[in-house]
Structure to design on (218 residues):
């Protein structure tokens, strides 16, 4: 492709060019936002709608709302959701890790003197997460909102806590809602990435593959 110019309301480019090309014919557009205005933009332009890791009921409602809005425009849309899994060899170990993470986060916030305060008034997603956190620390099977409350509903702060088997079951629940991709990162990024790769991802893929085989044979 040749270099190109663009003069728009928000972005301008002169002789833009990249030697690196996407594997797809075009880069998929990921978009998030829970306000009616954001959902309208997603319905018109997004390839994938991204959700924060909220409880199953709220996630199901969002999927239905966004899917219906996109369908009105003759479009199909995929879904992505974000979590911070906390894995343990046993359920007890996983929750002990979660409690340690909470205590460390609380200590770091106190030492830094930083306060998140209330979520930004325009962030409907943050308001939804904070409402879930205020309703209780644990939701559904293994969803934990302890850190979410500390940061006033902001950021990618909800966790799935348990053994790899329990967390993969929880991911499958979201998959069954129509959310077919997941963005995960840990509170201990490097070590968690290794553990996810060894334990969580293979098991989740196996369960999705088994579910797909059952659906095909039905």
């Amino acid at each position: 492709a040749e270099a190109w110019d663009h003069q728009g309301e928000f972005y301008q480019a002169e002789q833009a060019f990249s030697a690196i090309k996407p594997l797809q014919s075009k880069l998929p557009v990921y978009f998030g936002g829970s306000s009616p205005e954001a959902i309208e933009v997603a319905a018109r332009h997004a390839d994938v709608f991204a959700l924060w890791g909220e409880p199953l009921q709220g996630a199901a409602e969002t999927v239905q709302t966004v899917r219906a809005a996109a369908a009105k425009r003759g479009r199909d849309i995929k879904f992505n959701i974000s979590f911070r899994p906390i894995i343990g060899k046993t359920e007890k170990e996983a929750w002990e890790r979660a409690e340690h993470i909470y205590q460390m986060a609380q200590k770091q916030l106190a030492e830094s003197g930083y306060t998140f305060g209330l979520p930004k008034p325009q962030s409907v997603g943050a308001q939804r997460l904070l409402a879930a956190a205020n309703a209780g620390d644990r939701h559904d099977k293994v969803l934990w909102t302890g850190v979410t409350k500390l940061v006033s509903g902001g950021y990618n702060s909800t966790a799935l806590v348990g053994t790899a088997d329990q967390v993969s079951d929880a991911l499958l629940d979201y998959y069954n809602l129509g959310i077919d991709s997941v963005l995960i990162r840990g509170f201990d990024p490097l070590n968690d990435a290794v553990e996810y790769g060894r334990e969580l991802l293979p098991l989740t893929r196996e369960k999705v593959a088994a579910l797909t085989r059952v659906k095909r044979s039905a």
Observations:
- The two ends are 46 Å apart (CA to CA).
- The chain has a mean pLDDT of 92.
- Helices lie at 36-45, 56-72, 91-112, 124-135, 146-150, 164-175, 189-217.
- Strands lie at 4-7, 12-16, 30-32, 48-52, 78-83, 86-87, 138-139, 143-144, 159-162, 181-184.
